[in-house]
Design a protein that fits this description.
The complex is a heterodimer of chains A (323) and B (321).
Chain A: H1 3-10, H2 15-32, H3 44-69, H4 73-95, H5 97-110, E1 116-119, E2 124-127, H6 140-148, H7 170-184, E3 188-189, H8 190-200, H9 225-241, H10 244-255, H11 260-267, H12 271-291, H13 295-313
Antiparallel strand pairs in A: 1-2, 2-3
Helix pairs in contact in A: 1-2, 2-3, 2-4, 3-4, 5-8, 6-7, 6-8, 9-13, 10-13, 11-12
Chain B: H1 19-25, H2 29-34, E1 41-47, E2 50-59, E3 63-70, E4 80-83, E5 94-105, E6 109-115, H3 118-133, H4 154-180, H5 193-200, H6 204-211, H7 215-222, H8 230-240, H9 244-250, H10 256-263, H11 265-278, H12 282-296, H13 307-318
Antiparallel strand pairs in B: 1-2, 1-6, 2-3, 3-5, 4-5
Classes of the chains: A mainly alpha (323), B alpha+beta (321).
Amino acid sequence: MSAYLELQRDGRLGPAGAALLYRATATAVRRGRFRPEEGQRWDVDAVHAAAADTLVKGGSRLLTSLLIRATDDDSLERLMGAAVTNHLRDRDRREHRGPLIRALSDAVADDANDLRTIETPARRCWTLPTVSQDVWAGDRTELVAAAFSVVDISLLRWRSDRRRSPIAERASLVAVMTRVIEAAGGPVPYTTMAEVLEHRFSLASPPLLIDLDDEPGPVEPEATPGEQASAALDAEVIFEQLTDRERWVLHLYEEGETTVRELANQLGVSKSTAANTVNRLKQLLAGALDDSTDGLAALQALGDLIDDWTRRQGPTSETGAGS
Amino acid sequence: MPANDRTAQPGLPDVRVTSEVMTAWGEPLEVLVSRRPRAGELWRLEFNGAATLALVLDRDESELLVAAVGDDPEYADHATLLITADESPVGYAVGVWTSVTMHVPDFVAERPVGTLRDADLGRAVSLHDWLTYGRPCDVASDRRGRPVGDGHDLIVDYRLALRDELEHVGAPAIELARRAEQDDEPEVPEPSLGSLLRAANVPTSQLAEVLGWPRERARGAYRDTVFLGEGDVGALAELLSVSPDVIRASVPIPPPALVVSVHGPAARASVQELSDQLGVPAVAARRVATEGALALQPRATGPRVDWDQVLADYFRGVLQR
């Protein structure tokens, strides 16, 4: 049954919906180049966990919005992909909160300004000598509006993986923090200030289904030459084990031809042959990528090899890919 | 269609669509036929393979003035009315964007999803009139989003995305409604799909087998009464050894008045029944019904075709009423 019809009938994901979510998650991970959780690598379990996390975080709001805004399985998968991408971006950005607060602390400490750090029994705050001693507790949107009232700031590329990475020129940061504290009329807790500045500097949590990012994903550290070479070697080993038909299947997956019927049509084979090829390919890739030190990088390198290979084959070979 | 009590899929949490929306989705078909969008109601707008959620601010005989509804109250400008989860007809907090409005034909209103409280409709209209006509507005700031900062403010991007979503549904529908007033004929391009199939000498049986179609549908392709999905386009391109673009360009464009009818309220319940019968989403059921009606009504010259009647005849046959 169609995943969308399952959702419409039962108000929840059924077997087809779960499969679609897993597939959308795997695609989002690959396209967004997201880092796995600390100490983990992207494998089937990690992809399933990311799918489950997306569902937990989005909750009923996510499923309801999917029901309303999708019209069929294709649009459902596309929207699921956006939801997973935004969830993974949000997860990465929450991990940035600590480095962001450190960057703000550096700006406060290094520049000649009136900003001060104070410690209340409950939390640490930034404040000014000109405001009251009462820690701010109010509507955060007012502080965000105050942050945006500072104009002509200079943005810099924010890198959470660099401890001293700037978010904007320090003078701009100090100006924004000062305006926020003035609007608050009292000390502003670190976490609140970080949330407000995340909005001001386009680092806020992404929306549920709408993709606002121009960039393909969060900043990822460059792989070292050694890591790149290792991934390329792993990819070559996998590539050599594939039959022509399996290479075409991988290519067609990249092109978005993902149902067995579509693959069978494209390859000029029966649906059962196409299904057998897909199953063999999954087993082979799972085993090979388990042995790889960086499965995602190896998969990306494999994609490049497949692209080169299909270009060399030419368009007329596709229907005869039956080896 | 109430949610059933099956367990969650292995590995996934038991998350469900809100009961408010499931209740609205399960509205009886006979009620669905008679529903006309009214001010204050949230409707799912659907057309051109896209769907979105909008509030009806006003309506006249055949057009609706709608405002986009966003799922992310964190992203809301100063003209956006914030509806808390407790007050929301969909069961979670939303924002009604009175800065993202559009006049759309009423046939894009596909399904009622809930109704705002009268006070909230009044607030939404007040914000719209404030923004559009400069009238005084006393909606409290805690019921609205915040003023947009500058070009870096993500609210600007969010608003653009919502506008795109609404226009993706509304703009082609407006164009179609305009054409429906003028044209009444399917537009058969040249070369048509039928002529391509005849030139390639592909037998009906082979076409049906390759595409997994019933014979009747394959015959319809020769008569240029079949509209294709993307999967069919790829298979046909391979079968005829032409590029997919050639296939796409060869498919007939149904008469605008028929498309309006198949989206209209009179067909709403029948489309749902056909969708259930075929096990396909409503968007695909509409395509099947469009083909069926076109096959039932030979291309005629002369008096305007009453597509509502042709569709009614078609549904009477396939739904075995």
